[in-house]
Amino acid sequence: MSETILTTRSNTFFNYGDLSWDVVAELPRDTPLVLPLGSGYNLDLLADQLSNPPRIGLLPAFPFGWRGSGLEVPDHVFMQYIVNLLDSLRDDGFSRVYCLAPQGFDPQSFFIGGHSSSILRLANPSQNAPAFQLPQDSERNKVILIPIGHTEQHGYHLPLSVDTIIIEAIAKGTVTLMPTRSWPMPAMPYGVSTHRSSFAATLNAGGRAFEDFWLAVIDVLVSRGFDRFYLMSGHGGNSSFLVNIVKYAGERHRRIFCATAYLHTSGKIGAEALNKYRTSKIGGMGHAGELETSYLLHLRPDLCQMERVVDETDFVATPDYYMDWIEGGALIANPPWDDDTKTGAYGAGSHATAEKGRLWLEAAINEKADHVEQIHEQHERREKRRNEGYGLWGKNPSRN
């Protein structure tokens, strides 16, 4: 794999998400790393602001959340998410870490006081565009798909952006299959990694900040009349926090249906496809293994370095705790990743093929489409009961 390079004048930008973790580990710690809010910035002007260093890393763009982004959450909720991501980079030793924001971006003073030097501001073309909202009000009565990936290490052979690439493709495929039944939010490239310190380059939004942010997103959408949501995760570390969000949202907004699932390609349809086409044994699909590598060989072969694959399946397993894509056993735990892997991979990436990736993507899309239909059915049947005065709804029809 050759990293994606964006060159303007004499300055060279690289996409952080295209790198493998060991490449990030070798970067000079004074390399500027920039997290953009949205896209469309003039990179020449950005280089000037940074005094034209030889290399500048651009992280995946944060898609929404700030004023003017199309979907705004409270400043303190939004900024805590951003601060945690920047702190992940600082924890890895990087000394020049920035958030690139549109001119006029001015969050509440609690952030400005301690972090103003971390914010760069440039004009953004979207500032001159007509006001817009995510999603448009015309998309009401559809299931709003909320794909959440991550930026984290995936061994030597895969880039940091694996989880986002996969879940974005699944969400887009689902909407292509069901355009009148679903609508996709822009994919979020940042989630939660409680194992962040084990290998370089992994970011962490923080569990509480993650929950606060996504609950605020649901709050905004519910206030605009949306009532069906599917939080779709491409990263296992998000899953337990998404369950909490679903529970909070269901209690706070009693006439919506908000759902999540542990991971893509892991329900009834996905599990059948995994078993049908896999060639690795249990343990071969834990992380950066046969499944995720196959997906990337199908979706972004240019970002795969198959000559660098290292199969690692020596997970410390017992009958009630072992790792595969569909994890097994009754125990839930979170031991250090470096107990079980030397390279960051849990699995057998050498078994991957692009054809398996195509077949598993097809299964994942069909699985999500089935979930979309079930969300619609759940919401419609429940609303019918409510409107007919079922149980306590009949005694207090104003319950919301």
Q: What is the strand arrangement across the widest sheet?
A: 1-2-4-3-5-6
Radius of gyration: 21 Å
Helix content: 25-40%
DSSP summary: helix tally: 11
Question: How many angstroms does the end-to-end distance come to?
Answer: 53 Å
Q: What would the principal axes of the Cα set say about the shape? A: globular
- Please give the number of β-strands: 10
Mean pLDDT across all amino acids = 92
Largest sheet: 6 strands, mixed
Structural class call reads alpha/beta
- Low-pLDDT segments, ≥5 res: none
Strand content: 5-15%
Name the helix and strand elements from N-terminus to C-terminus, one letter apiece. Answer: EEHEHEHEHEEHEHEHEHHHH
Question: Can you describe what's shown?
Answer:
With 400 residues, this protein is of the alpha/beta class. Among the domains are: 1-128, no CATH class; 268-358, no CATH class. Helices cover 35% and strands 12% of the residues. It has helices at 21-25, 43-49, 75-91, 109-115, 162-177, 207-223, 239-252, 268-277, 290-299, 354-387, 392-395, and strands at residues 5-8, 11-15, 33-36, 55-58, 97-102, 119-122, 143-148, 182-184, 228-233, 257-260. The strands form two sheets. The chain has a six-stranded mixed sheet with strand order 1-2-4-3-5-6, sandwiched between helices. α5 (162-177) links the parallel β7 (143-148) and β8. α3 runs antiparallel to α6 and α5 (162-177) crosses α9 (290-299). The protein is globular, with a radius of gyration of 21 Å. The mean pLDDT is 92.
